[in-house]
Every structure is written in C-alpha cells, then in structure tokens.
C-alpha cells in the first residue's frame, strides 16, 4: 500500500515525500515537471512523469502501486500570474482536481489530503485569520483552491470520500540541502537571486501601520508543513475524525523588514533594501492561527526565522 503525492517533485511536494519516508510510509510520485525537478525525488521512490489531467495514467498508477490515498500538491501556484492566465489556472487546478477525484472514485481510492492555500481568504479585515474567517479570494488561483475544497466536500457527500484541506501562506526554508525553492515569484528566491547578482532586494512599501512599516505575514518552515501533511494522512489511515480544513499558521507573523534584517545577518552580506511603492491590494497584515492543526495534526512552529533563512540560504548556495 502506498500514498500518491501529486506534484511530489516540487519544492513542497518533495519535502512531503521525504516526510512520509521518515515515517516508513511508502509513497509514489506523479509530476509533470512543469515546475518540479526529478532530482528532488529520492531514487528509492517510484516516479511517474505525467499530468493529473491524464485520468488513464492516474488509474494505472493507482493499480500498479497499490495506492490507497492521495496527497494532492500538484497545481499552478502563482497567484499573480493567474490573473493573466485564468483559463490555464482553472484547467490545472480545477479540471485537474476533478480528473484526479474521478480517477480515485474509479479506482476505489477514498482518502485525500489537499494542499490548499490561505489565498482563499483574500484580504481579510481581521488581525488573526481562523478557518471560519469569510472566504473572498482575489485571484483565479485563490478561487481555484476554494473550488477544490468544495469539490472534496461534495465528493465526500456523494461517495464517502475521507478528506481534509490544509491552508497556508508563505512556505520557506529547506529541510534538505538538495531541495530548495526555485519559484521566481516567492520572496526568498527573489531576495537570494538579487544578492547573488550583486543587487539590493526590494521592499514594496514601508509605510504600513505595522511596527516597522513593512507588511507582516505568516512564514512557515517547509519541513513543519510536510510533517502535518503526513499527520493528516495518518489520521485518515486510522479512520480518526478529522476537520475538513486546517490553517497552518504561525499565530504572530513576521515583517518583510525583519526578514531582510535576518537575511543580512545570515548571509553576512551588508545591504540596504530598495524601497518601492506599495503593491495594489497588499494588506498591512495577514496572519493565521494554527490552533486547530496543533490539536489534530502535530502542527507547531519548530523553526525560528533565523533557521528558516539559514536553511534556505544553505540549500540555495549548494545549488549554485
């Protein structure tokens, strides 16, 4: 028996794969390598190259590897780009999830952990986001994740699908020197690439109503995130009660200014960030509680900001 990790060759997915391995749970990876890397997948883990839009491939994979559950991480994850590519986003994230759920139903696979996003909340007007905070996504990406949650809910009503969705904001750090964030749209890679190129990173606005004037966000370590995906799968395997959604949040957050200061300390590169204008739609603060996940999914912030930055920096330098 094995769990299928879709998108398991990506930055987050690869950490989830290795977290399963650390618990002695067999996994198989399916990834089209549109943004993932085959080198991120351990040699001991079966790897199927292909798309979640290919139902026949999914059903063969389920049968050949005796798959009993799915961790669904695959998807188009760039919120900003999704505004320019809405149809592509919906095809990958909505149609793809529908095809996956159909393949699961056809193959009698009845357990799924869905990698959702705090983008479903849009710009909340509360200091601390909970699972019950109203949903108001502001991009096709956020909308597609919310639709994915709805599909799991409706399939559960129709077929008894056992499921949960994990929502989170900014994932950083690295648990392994050979797995790192390669997204051109995420803060840490952008900052590191600028520094390695001899340029000063940029902060978008320093006049917000926050302690240092820069935006405050949840930043969580990818290894902590991966551990909770495994805990959710184990709970489903054991037939234990589970909530339909969980936030994986820090409860307090850190500012972009704090991150820049920590990056300077860790990299020992002295720089003064460039200050640009605010980005449209950027709220001053978005921070989530993780209390429900702490109760059920072994969620906790095991890594400090310094550890997040240092682990990400070490992995990025190793990749040079």
From TrEMBL:
One of its GO terms (molecular function) is UDP-glucose 4-epimerase activity. Transmembrane segments: none annotated. This is UDP-glucose 4-epimerase. It catalyses: UDP-alpha-D-glucose = UDP-alpha-D-galactose. Keywords: Carbohydrate metabolism, Isomerase, NAD. Coiled coil: none annotated. Its EC number is 5.1.3.2. Residues 3-249 form the NAD-dependent epimerase/dehydratase domain. Pathway: Carbohydrate metabolism; galactose metabolism. Its cofactor is NAD(+). It comes from Paramicrobacterium chengjingii. Belongs to the NAD(P)-dependent epimerase/dehydratase family. It comes from the Bacteria. InterPro entries: Epimerase_deHydtase, NAD(P)-bd_dom_sf, UDP_G4E.
């Amino acid at each position: 028996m094995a769990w299928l990790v879709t998108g398991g060759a990506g930055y987050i997915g690869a950490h989830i794969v290795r977290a399963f391995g650390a618990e002695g749970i067999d996994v198989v990876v399916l990834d089209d390598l549109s943004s993932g890397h085959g080198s991120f997948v351990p040699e001991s883990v079966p790897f199927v190259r292909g798309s979640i839009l290919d139902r026949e491939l999914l059903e063969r994979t389920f049968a050949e590897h005796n798959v009993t559950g799915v961790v669904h991480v695959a998807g188009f994850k760039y919120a900003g780009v999704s505004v320019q590519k809405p149809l592509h986003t919906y095809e990958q994230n909505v149609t793809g999830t529908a095809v996956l759920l159909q393949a699961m139903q056809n193959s009698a696979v009845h357990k799924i952990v869905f990698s959702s996003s705090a983008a479903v909340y849009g710009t909340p007007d509360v200091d601390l986001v909970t699972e019950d905070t109203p949903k108001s996504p502001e991009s096709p990406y956020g909308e597609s994740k919310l639709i994915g949650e709805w599909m799991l809910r409706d399939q559960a009503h129709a077929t008894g699908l056992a499921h949960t969705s994990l929502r989170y904001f900014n994932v950083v750090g690295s648990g392994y020197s050979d797995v790192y964030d390669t997204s051109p749209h995420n803060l840490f890679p952008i900052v590191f690439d600028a520094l390695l190129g001899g340029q000063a990173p940029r902060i978008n606005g320093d006049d917000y109503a926050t302690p240092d004037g820069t935006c405050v966000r949840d930043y969580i370590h990818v290894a902590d995130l991966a551990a909770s995906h495994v805990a959710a799968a184990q709970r489903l395997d054991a037939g234990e009660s589970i909530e339909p959604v969980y936030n994986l949040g820090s409860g307090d957050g850190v500012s972009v200014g704090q991150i820049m200061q920590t990056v300077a300390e860790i990299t020992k590169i002295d720089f003064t960030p460039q200050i640009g204008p605010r980005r449209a739609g950027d709220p001053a603060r978005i921070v989530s509680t993780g209390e429900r996940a702490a109760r059920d999914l072994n969620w906790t912030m095991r890594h400090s900001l310094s550890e997040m930055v240092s682990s990400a920096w070490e992995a990025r330098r190793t990749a040079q």
